[in-house]
Structure formats: structure tokens, C-alpha cells
């Protein structure tokens, strides 16, 4: 694995996303066995950064993640766990309650990285960050971040946070350059903030014939091209999700794929 070193932390360039682990908006018991198996194979392959949220399967994704980690015997300190507070829980007391809920679901006594999942029109960032700052001071959360924040909100978050904003988690892929075009990527790179790219390999991201041609020439998959393109960029990390152990392994291996200047030029307009 390769890492981004930031604020004396080493964060893996490629982590594991937990959306659809245990269900979608609500728990789906049919998914328990495949979800635990997917998490177990990810842990066995050496994934150490897991991204979940109180919103994923209404907390059941967090429950299964905690369960899988305990069953695997992996030491808590060897892992980096991200979770998120929902955009409807951004009042002071609601943030504290949401974090307690996530810790209970995970069966852990701290979360490494806690994000505001989505901005809400009604949120008062100063009030939200008063609660988030308290969670850090109390040791329940190690680092803070945001998700789906534009440049203005990202800067406001920096001003309201007592500690450095570690990441802005946003959609970013070969097919979706919104957060490059809107200036967030360049700002993160210039200000020691990680851009965590979500939905990196969704079908839309890999369907162009150019991507497929480069992948075929290198003897790898289009998904690996999509991930390599992301992690070759400074301050960018990503969190693909897969139930399939072979895909999980291929995704990890993408960190070692080198795209040439010529290949990068071909991908620039994709
Ligand atoms: N902050 C936010 O608002 C937000 C929003 C969306 C997502 N996220 C986070 O980002 C994570 C990743 O995003 P995502 O789940 O939307 O999309 P994604 O990881 O880009 O795509 C997941 C899909 O791609 C397939 N896949 C993964 N690796 C593959 C490979 N090597 N070859 C072929 N197919 C592959 C998976 O199917 P198989 O299971 O068959 O491999 C799955 O259907 C989420 O799990 C979540 O943690 C955050």
C-alpha cells in the first residue's frame, strides 16, 4: 500500500467503502452474511481504512463493520475508521448523540475520522463544530472532516474547527470532475487537506473506450485505471466498495499501477 502522510498520520491511498454493507437506507438481513464475508476478506487482504456512516443501513453498516473487525482479531489501533454524522443531526446535542450512536454500533470507544456527511441549508457550522470540537477534546473522535462541501463551506469549516480539517470526501472520478472544476481539489492540495474520492469505479467512471484501451494494453482492468488515475494525484485518497474478494484485491493492487504522461494526457478529457 502507499500512503498520504498528513498531520503526522499515514492514511492509505486506497481504503474500503461500506455503503451497501448490511443494507441500503435500512438494514437488510439478507445482506448480513455477504457483508461480513466482504469485510473479512477486505481485512484479510490488508485494508486498514474503512469508511462508514450512521446513515448506511441506519447504523447496521457500522454494526457489521465492528463485528467483522472483532471476529478477525485485528487490533483496533491497526485500523483507521471513518464515520459520518447525518445532515439532519447537526445541532449541538444531536451531534453528540449521533456520535454516541455510532460508537455503540461500532462497539468502539473512538472513531478515527468523523465527517459531516452532507451540508444542510439550516446548519449553523459554528454550533455543529462546537459539538465536534468537544468530541475531539473528549477523545471520542481523533480527527474531523467534511463531505460534499463546496469551497466556501470548506473554508468556513476550517475557521470553525479547533483542529485541522483532515478531509473533504466528495465524488471524484474519471467521469466526475466537479470537485476539480469547482476549485476544491486545488485548494485541498495547497492546504494539506485530503480529498477522499468516493464512487471511484462506479460503472459510469470506466465505460469510455479510451479507458478500456489503456487497460487492455497494460493487461489490467478499467477499474484499476480509474483508481490509479486518482491515487497518482497528490493529496487524493479513495475508498472503493466491493463485495467480491477478487475485485477487492485488484483495487488494492491499483495503487502500484503507474500511468505514463502519455496515458494521463489521454485520460485528461475523459
Ligand atoms: N460521502 C458520501 O456522500 C458518499 C457517497 C457515496 C459513496 N460514499 C463512500 O464511498 C464508497 C465507494 O463509493 P460507491 O460504493 O458509491 O461506488 P464505487 O466504490 O465506485 O463502486 C462500487 C461498485 O463497483 C463495483 N466494483 C468495485 N470494484 C470493482 C472492480 N475492481 N471490478 C469491477 N467492479 C468493481 C462493485 O461491485 P462488486 O461488489 O461486484 O465488486 C460495486 O457495484 C462507498 O461505499 C461509501 O463508503 C460516500
Whole-Å distance between the termini? Answer: 26 Å
Query: Main sheet: which strands, in order across?
Result: 3-4-5-6-7-8-9-10
Q: Number of DSSP helices?
A: 11
Largest sheet: 8 strands, parallel
Tags for this entry?
binds NADP nicotinamide-adenine-dinucleotide phosphate; 270 residues; 41% helix; two-stranded antiparallel sheet; alpha/beta; globular; 8-stranded parallel β-sheet
Description:
The protein is α/β, with parallel strands linked by helices. The chain contains eleven helices and ten strands. An eight-stranded parallel beta sheet has the order 3-4-5-6-7-8-9-10. Helix 1 (32-45) packs across helix 2. The protein is globular. NADP nicotinamide-adenine-dinucleotide phosphate binds at residues 17-19, 51, 117, 147-148, 169, 198-202, 221, 223, 239-244, 247, 250-251.
Architecture blueprint of SSEs:
Blueprint: E1 3-6, E2 9-12, E3 16-17, H1 32-45, E4 49-51, H2 60-72, E5 80-85, H3 92-106, E6 111-116, H4 125-137, E7 141-147, H5 151-160, E8 165-171, H6 178-181, H7 184-190, E9 194-198, H8 209-218, H9 222-231, E10 236-238, H10 245-253, H11 261-267
Parallel strand pairs: 3-4, 4-5, 5-6, 6-7, 7-8, 8-9, 9-10
Antiparallel strand pairs: 1-2
The structure holds NADP nicotinamide-adenine-dinucleotide phosphate (NAP).
Amino acid at each position: 500500500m502507499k500512503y498520504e502522510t498528513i498531520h503526522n498520520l499515514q492514511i492509505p491511498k486506497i481504503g474500503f467503502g461500506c455503503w451497501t454493507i448490511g443494507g441500503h437506507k435500512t438494514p437488510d438481513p439478507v445482506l448480513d452474511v455477504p457483508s461480513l464475508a466482504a469485510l473479512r476478506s477486505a481485512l484479510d487482504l490488508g485494508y486498514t481504512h474503512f469508511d462508514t456512516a450512521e446513515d448506511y443501513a441506519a447504523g447496521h453498516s457500522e454494526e457489521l463493520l465492528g463485528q467483522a473487525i472483532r471476529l478477525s482479531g485485528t487490533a483496533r489501533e491497526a485500523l483507521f475508521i471513518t464515520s459520518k454524522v447525518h445532515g439532519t443531526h447537526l445541532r449541538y446535542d444531536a451531534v453528540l448523540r449521533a456520535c454516541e450512536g455510532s460508537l455503540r454500533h461500532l462497539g468502539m470507544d473512538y472513531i478515527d475520522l468523523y465527517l459531516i456527511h452532507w451540508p444542510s441549508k439550516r446548519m449553523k457550522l459554528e454550533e455543529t463544530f462546537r459539538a465536534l470540537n468537544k468530541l475531539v477534546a473528549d477523545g471520542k473522535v481523533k480527527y474531523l472532516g467534511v463531505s460534499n462541501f463546496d469551497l466556501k463551506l470548506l473554508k468556513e469549516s476550517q475557521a470553525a474547527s479547533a483542529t485541522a480539517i483532515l478531509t473533504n470526501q466528495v465524488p471524484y472520478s474519471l467521469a466526475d470532475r466537479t470537485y476539480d472544476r469547482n476549485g476544491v481539489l486545488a485548494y485541498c492540495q495547497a492546504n494539506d487537506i485530503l480529498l477522499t474520492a468516493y464512487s471511484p469505479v462506479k460503472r459510469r467512471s470506466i465505460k469510455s473506450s479510451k479507458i478500456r484501451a489503456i487497460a487492455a494494453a497494460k493487461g489490467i482492468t478499467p477499474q484499476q485505471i480509474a483508481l490509479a488515475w486518482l491515487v497518482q494525484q497528490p493529496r487524493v485518497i479513495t475508498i472503493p466498495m466491493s463485495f467480491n474478494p477478487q475485485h477487492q484485491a485488484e483495487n488494492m493492487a491499483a495503487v502500484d499501477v503507474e500511468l505514463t504522461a502519455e496515458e494521463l494526457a489521454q485520460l485528461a478529457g475523459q
